[in-house]
Every structure is written in C-alpha cells, then in structure tokens.
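Module 6 notes. Inverse folding takes a fixed backbone as the condition and produces residue identities as the prediction. Think of it as a translation problem where the source language is geometry and the target language is the twenty amino acids. Below is one complete input and output pair. Work through it position by position during the lab.
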C-alpha cells in the first residue's frame, strides 16, 4: 500500500532537523511540567487536580510563545480571538450536535496561525468534549506546535480525550512522537487507546518507508535521541539518518536489527539489538559498531527483543533476551532482563521469565524513572528500579 505525500502547512518530516529539535525539546519541557503537576497533587491518581494545575501554568500566552511570531497574524484588541473562543465553546456539552458540527467545521476553515494559541489553550478546557474535539481539529490542521500540545494531552484524565489525542498524533505521523506511543502501548489502562497508539505507530513506520521508497515492512525499528531529537531508522539493509530533504544510509548493519535505543545524554551513542549477534554499540552515530559480549549469553543462541536506556543514569542500559526455539536450554543460557551499569561493558541478569514469554518492548518513563516497564505477548509488567540502581553510575 502506498501513501500520498503530505502537503500541509506544518510538516513533521524527520529530515527537518531544526524543526525536529525544536519540537522534541518543547515536548520534553511540557512532559516535565506534567510531571510537576502530578507531583504537586496528593495522589498520582488525582489526575483532575493535576489538570487544574496545568491550566494555571499553561496560560494561552505561554503556549503562544512557542510559536514563531512571524507565523501569527492577529489584529490589535480581541477582534480576532473572540469569534474563535465562541466557536470553541460551541463544541462543548449542552450544545445541539448540529451546532457542534458547524462550529468544528468553521474552526477547520480558519487560518492556522490565527487560532492555534486558542486551540492549544482549549486542550485544558474543563469540558472534556471540547478537549477531544479540539484534538480532532488539530489532527487535520497540523499547525506549528500541534505535536507538543497533543503529546501533553495524552496524559489527560479522560479516556475519550486521550484517545482523540493519540489518534491525532497518528494523523500527524511524526517519528518524534514514537517514544510516547511506546509508553502508551505498555501502561495505558484503556485497551482502545493502546490500540490507537499501535495504529499511530504503524502509520509513522509506513510514512518513513514511503520516504525511503521501500515497502512498509522494510523499516524494522526507529529510535529518537532524547537529547536533540535526532532520528535513526534501522532497516533490513542498514541504518538511515535524515540528511537535508532525503534519507542517507549511515552504515550497513552486520545482522538483522531487532531493537534500537539512543543514549539519553549523547545522541551519537547507540545500542542495537540483533537476532544473532547480541548487542552492538556505536559511539559515532551508527557509522561503526562494536559487539558487547561480556557477561551476556552466547549471542548466536539468543535474540535481543528490546533495549532501554535510563533517562536518569545514562550509563545504565537494559536489554531483554529471548531464546531461539529448540536451540537453548534455559539452565545453560537463562532468558530474562540484563542490566549494564557501565554503558554496556559488563552485564548482570536481574530477572528471569519462562521461555515462552518474550518481552517485546522496554520503556522507562522520564516522568516516573523509578520503574522499568515491559510488554510481553501475554501482557505488561513493571519492575522497580530501586532494587538495582546504585548511586549515580
């Protein structure tokens, strides 16, 4: 299946490195604000109180400040903003469905730059129907800053709003949002939202494959550097990075890639999981690779299914291993979760699973870095890192 190239006013195409860095850093700031908001509430589950704190902290002028001034054209006074606010209020509960539909259509037709600040502010409106409707509008209009605002909205206390935000991110289809989609697929409690995150991820992978002019299954794994938003794409034939208006192969990979992670502090340091060579490490953005063997099971007999790097201690790395069927006796090379505290030089086994349980994803949420989350074919698990973390490594 081929995809039609996008021609929107804002594009999250990964080859736009300056835009990529801007969006990722803004998203990191927003997520940090969410973490503070939750920390200030008596209980983590008190999401409504956290949302109220966000409303106070995230004033319209603060959101507008993230949008380049040259992209905003608002007349003096409140002439341009009052009709927008009126239309936004018509999206809410208590209004006739026909009124809501007309308001949504009118907002779709308005210039992006003129209404973007009001739409971003509406994502913290007290009415969840307004928040969900605005997320749908942002999915179509894709104004500058939409990626950041929608990523923040995936933490909304209302499932319908979170669902609308995740679906909107799928329409924008930027690789920069993949880390958040990973988290949602593992520990989101609503199955429909988890499914929407999976579909959004598939759209992003299909978009990148289209830009590479290859089939959709050509892309094996995509990783985003937390420090600067650099994007790495591991495929069947090599590692690709964005260069200008195109993609460039960084290197041929020595084995089939199965997992990829980037150091939290150094965008040039990569950890690559393979199907038959274990864990490989690159210190030069994937141009060259070294095999990490110390204390890991025989690489030829296992496959690396997931990798995660700690956002708190960048030298701490986790890998999940699985056995090739009928090739490994569990007591000889046990499966499970391995951790390195020295950036991959040595490894230690910290947990085991039965042979038929394969961990497909590993995630450490920057907001809650004291837990490692994993997803298996049979469900998700959470591992307390307080048991294994030392003093800053």
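Target side of the pair, the amino acids:
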């Amino acid at each position: 299946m081929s995809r039609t190239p996008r021609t929107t006013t804002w594009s999250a195409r990964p080859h736009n490195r300056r835009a990529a860095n801007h969006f990722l850093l803004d998203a990191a700031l927003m997520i940090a604000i969410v973490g503070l908001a939750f920390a200030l509430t008596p209980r983590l589950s008190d999401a409504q109180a956290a949302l109220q704190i966000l409303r106070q902290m995230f004033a319209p002028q603060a959101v507008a400040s993230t949008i380049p001034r040259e992209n905003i054209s608002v007349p003096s006074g409140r002439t341009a903003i009052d009709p927008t606010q009126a239309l936004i209020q018509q999206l809410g509960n208590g209004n006739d469905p026909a009124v809501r539909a007309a308001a949504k259509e009118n907002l779709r037709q308005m210039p992006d730059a003129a209404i973007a600040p009001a739409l971003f502010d509406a994502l913290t409106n007290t009415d969840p129907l307004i928040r969900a409707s605005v997320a749908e509008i942002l999915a179509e209009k894709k104004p500058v800053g939409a990626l950041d605002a929608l990523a923040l909205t995936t933490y909304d206390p209302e499932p319908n709003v979170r669902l609308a935000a995740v679906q909107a991110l799928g329409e924008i289809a930027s690789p920069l949002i993949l880390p958040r989609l990973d988290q949602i697929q593992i520990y989101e409690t609503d199955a429909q939202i988890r499914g929407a995150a999976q579909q959004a991820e598939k759209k992003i992978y299909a978009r990148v494959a289209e830009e590479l002019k290859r089939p959709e299954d050509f892309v094996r794994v995509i990783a985003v550097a937390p420090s600067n938003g650099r994007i790495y794409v591991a495929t069947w034939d090599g590692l690709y990075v964005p260069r200008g208006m195109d993609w460039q192969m960084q290197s041929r990979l020595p084995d089939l890639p199965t997992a990829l992670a980037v150091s939290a502090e150094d965008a040039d340091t990569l950890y690559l999981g393979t199907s038959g060579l274990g864990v490989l490490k690159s210190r030069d953005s994937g141009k060259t690779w070294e095999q990490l063997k110390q204390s890991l099971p025989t690489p030829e007999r296992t496959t690396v299914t997931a990798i995660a790097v700690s956002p708190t201690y960048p030298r701490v790395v986790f890998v999940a291993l699985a056995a090739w069927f009928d090739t490994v006796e569990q007591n000889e090379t046990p499966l499970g979760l391995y951790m390195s505290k020295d950036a991959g030089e040595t490894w230690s086994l910290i947990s085991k699973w039965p042979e038929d349980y394969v961990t497909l994803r590993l995630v450490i949420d920057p907001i809650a870095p004291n837990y490692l989350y994993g997803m298996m074919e049979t469900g998700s698990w959470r591992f307390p890192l307080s048991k294994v973390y030392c003093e800053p490594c």
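Reference fact for the lab report: Residues 1-81, 330-334 have pLDDT under 50 and may be disordered.
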